[in-house]
Design goal:
The chain is an alpha+beta fold. The protein has a single domain, classed as Irregular (Factor Xa Inhibitor), CATH 4.10.410. The chain is 33% helix and 15% strand. The chain is built from 3 helices and 3 strands; from the N terminus they run αββαβα. It has a 3-stranded antiparallel beta sheet.
Length: 67
């Protein structure tokens, strides 16, 4: 019998999973000091999908988020 996998809590808080099981992460420099940034810069700092190479690594860190 296999033991249960542990979820890496730091990755679970940083990663969002879409309906099609794609992983998304938030871009940097968007948490504060937004008044100094122009509109285009603020809008471009949204969620970004993760590459296929990193997908396999993250899949093992957050195994139960894929359901």
């Amino acid at each position: 019998m296999w033991s249960k996998l542990k979820t890496n809590k730091s990755m679970a808080k940083r990663i969002k999973v879409t309906k099609n099981n794609k992983f998304m992460h938030e871009k940097a420099y968007v948490s504060h000091l937004l008044t100094n940034k122009d509109k285009a810069q603020r809008q471009s700092k949204s969620w970004k999908s993760i590459s296929d190479k990193e997908y396999d690594k993250i899949k093992h860190l957050i195994p139960y988020k894929l359901r």
